Structures are given as C-alpha cells and as structure tokens.
Amino acid sequence: MSQIIPLLNYEEGYREKPYIDTEGYPTVACGIKIGPKGAALSNYSFSVPREVGDVWLESFVNKTIGNMNSNPSIVAALKACNEARRDILISMAYQMGVNGLAGFKNTLAMVAAGNFSGAANGMLSSAWAKQTPNRAKRHAEVMRTGEMKVYAGLLK
Questions:
Q1: In angstroms, what is the C-alpha Rg of the chain?
Q2: Residue 103: exposure state from Cβ atoms within 10 A (0-12, 13-18, ≥19)
Q3: Cα–Cα distance measured from residue 78 to residue 76, given in angstroms and rounded to the nearest whole number
Q4: Could you say which of 14, 47, 55, 96 would form a disulfide bridge with 100 (CB–CB 3.0 to 4.6 Å)?
Q5: pLDDT mean over 59-82
Q6: Element containing residue 29 per DSSP (H, E)
Q7: Structural contact between residues 92 and 136, judged by C-beta atoms closer than 8 angstroms
Q8: pTM for this one?
Q9: What is the torsion angle, in degrees rounded to the nearest 10, for the CA atoms of residue 65, residue 69, residue 70 and residue 76?
Q10: How many CB atoms lie within 10 A of CB 141?
Q11: What is its EC number (predicted)?
Q12: Burial class (CB in 10 A: 0-12, 13-18, 19+), 15
C-alpha cells in the first residue's frame, strides 16, 4: 500500500496555518504555495485542517503522477519499482518537479535496469542531496532496499 501522503507530510512538514517557506513564498499544509514570493502572511487568514490538506495533497500527487507518466524515462523507472520505490520517485517529483526528477537521467536508467544500489548512489551524489541531505539519505535507503524501514515510526 502506498505511503506517499504520510511520506510527503513527514518530509515536507505539515502546518495548518500559512507560513513563509525557505524560498520566501507563502505556503500552507504540506508545502503548498498559496501566493507570490514576498506576499505578506496577513493576506492569508485561514487554516487547513490535516484531513483537508491530505485531500488537497492527494490531488497534487495525482497531477504529479500524471505528469510523470508523460516522461518515458520516468515511466521506465516506475515500471521497475515496487510500491516503496515508486513512492520515493513520486516524492522526488513532488519536491523538485517532474522536470527536476527527469534530470536524474543516469539514476532513472539505473532504476529501470533494476540497479537500485547504483540509483541510490546517484541520488546521494546529486545537488539535490546537498540541498536536502537528510531527505536524500532516507530516500536513497528506500531505493536501495525497497523497504520503508528508515521511516518506521515516523509516518502517520
């Protein structure tokens, strides 16, 4: 069973009230941008309960998956994945966009070939891993093992 919604809630964090993200955008729930960079938080006087945010997130995930399915190298990688590895690729696409994930050409080719250790190493040697090292380490471990053990007790 997919763990993508709890995985993204853990990795992105969840806040019911709007906040300014690390890039300066007003954001809410599970990292969902709600306005232009630099906009004042006073423009946003609402909250998003977790149940609502999860439905909203599921909609974004479905759109992301649809976009992933239009990229042949991503499709080939997804076909080689079990559910846990698939969730990792979806998480990466959610975080950096489908085009960002598509830039992992060698990593995706290794996934498609079933070389999951090589793919994990590729993930860890990327600029993405330097920007979000803890997330990248967790994601690489799931890619390597095909199991979500590194997230045991963390996903709700």
A1: 16
A2: middle
A3: 6
A4: 96
A5: 98
A6: strand 26-29
A7: no
A8: 0.91
A9: 140
A10: 18
A11: 3.2.1.17
A12: middle
Using the Cα atoms of residue 86, residue 90, residue 93 and residue 98 in order, give the sign of their dihedral.
positive
pLDDT bracket for residue 22 (50, 70, 90): confident
47 within domain boundaries: yes
Closest Cα to residue 18, out of 37, 38, 36, 32? 32
> Burial letters for 60-73: b for 16+ Cβ neighbours within 10 Å, e otherwise?
ebeebbebbeebeb
CATH number at residue 45: 1.10.530.40
Contacts with 44 (C-beta within 8 Å, 6 or more apart), sequence order: 18, 26, 28, 34, 35
Number of domains in the chain: 1
CA 82 to chain centre: 16
